[in-house]
Amino acid sequence: MPSLRSAATTAATIETRPLHAVDRWLAARLQATIAPASIGVELWDGSTTGPPGQAIGDLLIHDRGALLGLIANPDLQFGELYSDGRLDVRGPFGEVVEALSRLTKRDRLALSERWALWTARPAGLLVARRNIHRHYDIGNDFYRRWLDPDLVYTCAHYPDPDATLEAAQAEKLELVCRKVDLRPGDEVVEAGCGWGALALYMARHYGVRVRAFNISSEQLDFARARAAREGLTDRVQFIADDYRNISGRCDVFVSVGMLEHVGLRNFGALAGVLRRTLDSRSGRGLLHFIGRDRRRPLNAWIRRRIFPGAYVPTLSEVTTRVLEPAGLSVVDVENLRQHYARTLAHWWERYEGAVPELRASFDERFIRAWRLYLAGSQAAFSTGWLQLFQVVFAPPDRLVHWARAGLYNPPRETA
Amino acid sequence: MPSLRSAATTAATIETRPLHAVDRWLAARLQATIAPASIGVELWDGSTTGPPGQAIGDLLIHDRGALLGLIANPDLQFGELYSDGRLDVRGPFGEVVEALSRLTKRDRLALSERWALWTARPAGLLVARRNIHRHYDIGNDFYRRWLDPDLVYTCAHYPDPDATLEAAQAEKLELVCRKVDLRPGDEVVEAGCGWGALALYMARHYGVRVRAFNISSEQLDFARARAAREGLTDRVQFIADDYRNISGRCDVFVSVGMLEHVGLRNFGALAGVLRRTLDSRSGRGLLHFIGRDRRRPLNAWIRRRIFPGAYVPTLSEVTTRVLEPAGLSVVDVENLRQHYARTLAHWWERYEGAVPELRASFDERFIRAWRLYLAGSQAAFSTGWLQLFQVVFAPPDRLVHWARAGLYNPPRETA
User: Fold this and answer.
1) Does domain B125-408 have CATH number 3.40.50.1820?
2) Which end of chain A is more exposed for a tag (fewer CB within 10 A), N or C?
């Protein structure tokens, strides 16, 4: 995140000028907009306006520009201003962020959102590499401080809501293997393998061979070192290449948390990969991705600062643009939205615990941006703004499972 | 099915004229078309052409018109000619039908199919009533001879492939109740309730109140009599009305096997019903329907003779045209295609056993048409030409289940 790490500004630049009448008028307007969220507004001179009834928290606005920004373009500016320390939140951060996220109309797109959809362009190989580098190559040390020890940076599956993050990530890896009915000897392709946890799990527990693709160099270094340490290099091959360059055939195709980075206009390319890669007799696969109920671009700030080039598709966009052109049937879809909210709650809690140490390596702007990203994502999943879909697919006349019960009952197989 | 019951023709009208050179040429052309299915052709004079290798069966063609019809418009004419007895099948009927159904290209639409999609018009209330009357009001006695005793005329759920039809239908009713997490006191709306089995099951086992809608008068008579017999009239109300006229509010909306009759151009009307009916806090629901991997009209013969006005949608058409405009999220999708193939195998087997008795009430044309419809449907599901989707949905911030395991493990609740 070079753009966040450099150009440090701090919360110290609080306005000292007295209020003007226009500030009070703007504050009242902002208050009216956010009133349904029961959040108050406090300006830089300490003056406050409150919602009718009890406020769950307050926005502390430190200068006039921040006030204007929040009114003019809240989708982008809330994140920018909070990162810059020109806006603070008093009260429970997560609850305030969640209440604010409920304000957006679900069935209306802002003009800027339509514009973003119209002008989205397919990322070529180089742009894709740069986008992925920017998020995933912040440094493995950074992620190690708040992810589970296996560094699984995707939605976990909690057997019950009180399970630990570690247990839930292990459960997720197992669930993916069961959903695609892994069998010893299967040839597996994984598109976008992160730090390699799933590929290594599959090889270790199911006796399959995995070719795992990724374009994040830091992740690949970690994954390869781990494969060597665990004696799995003969069964898991970590390949530094784009999903579009996947060649050869496979029995099982899995992709967990990559589709969001593909972008709608490259869905046809992914369909082509599936069509030429997946065996038409033995084939089956799973796409695990963040989704939406209706077409909409990602939040403008997330798109700018956190996930450049990302697009969160609807289920329909995935079935019609990826699976249908690849000649594949939908076998099973599970929405794990609440599990991602729980996963993010765990990540965020660990992240906050690590902040004192992170300050040694990262500036305050970066630290605040990631706090908002984690809390905002949790809010988006718990309110249903974002969904998490696991889609199992197969050629039309391939039976993957007779019935689901078998997925949830038998003891784990090990190879 | 008045059109099938009247105008009886029989297999007795076999051509006696000797073959002409053009007949041999046409037979060779037909043979070339169906060769990949390993099926032979035998003409009315006993002359045969065979596929390369062993044939699994033969088409016995009884006149020149039949030969021409099979070449010119097989989608429609196979059913017409077989019903009329101008075409017979030698060898295992189901296997031959399945082999023939595999011949159609999956990713290409015939011009007549495009035309059918373009010209499809939304059925008004009267047309819908006529279409439903034609299929479902053949007489309860007819259906009683080959359905299970509860008269469940939709895909069952087989705990294992060897389960009985009765067990599998009971399991399906229970599965639907669990998928929507029925709770005592829930107000349920069922759109298209058939002979009432699900509505009565819900009331009996889960202590809910059900308003069940249907426009088939014979089915309603049966359902009401059964409710009275079982003392459930205070909890289940069978209402003779179209789904578009559903009023009031409900906690749970279920529809099992009705969506196929709604037609694509009425999906917006169904979305409107969901939007105004389903409680935005407590609401959740399930749509169970025959689906497809890609947009395509129903087989022309099925559309003409069996299910007038029916359209089998893709999953994407349902999510974008029904759930999205209703502001609902996809919670869970299960493809039960193989279970429908099994269900149809059971129905067909019982149907064949009942044919001697059915001949007292129905002519040979009707009996042959239904044989082909049942065998052809089984083939369509087992080859993946048709899918069976159960879609669970809910408002975006409603949690229906924490995890699936609970659906498959606990003992049945009873009220």
Assistant:
1) no
2) C
Contact B293 A383 (CB under 8 A): no
Amino acid code (one letter) for A291: G
* Segments in chain B below pLDDT 50: 1-12, 413-415
What is the pLDDT, as a whole number, of residue B6? 33
ipTM: 0.93
Q: Which two tokens stand for residue A339?
A: 């599990």
- Find the distance separating the first CA and the last CA of chain A, reported in whole Å: 40
**Numbers of helices and strands, H then E, in chain A:** 18, 11
Q: Compare CB distances from B330 to A320, A327, A333 and report the shortest one's residue.
A: A333
pLDDT at B10: 45
* pTM of the entire predicted model: 0.94
The interface residues of chain A toward chain B in range 265-294, judged by CB-CB distance below 8 A, are 293-294
**Residue in A with minimal Cα distance to B382:** A397
Shortest distance between the Cα of B214 and any Cα of chain A, in A, equals 29
Average pLDDT, chain B: 91
User: In this complex, how many residue pairs, one in chain A and one in chain B, have their CB atoms less than 8 Å apart?
Assistant: 118
The type of residue at A322 is V
List phi, psi (to 5°) of A377. -65, -40
Q: What percent of chain A has pLDDT over 90?
A: 78
What is residue A410's predicted lDDT score, i.e. its pLDDT?
65
User: What stretch(es) of chain B map to CATH 3.30.1050?
Assistant: 5-103
State the smallest CA–CA distance between residue B405 and chain A in angstroms: 5
Q: Which two tokens stand for residue B303?
A: 């559309």
Is residue B292 within 8 A of residue B108, CB to CB? The reply is: no
Provide, as residue numbers in chain B, all residues whose Cβ is less than 8 Å from the Cβ of A330.
Answer: 293, 315, 333, 335, 387, 389
Q: CB-based contact (8 Å) between A405 and chain B? A: yes
> CATH 3.40.50.150 occupies which residues in chain B?
125-408
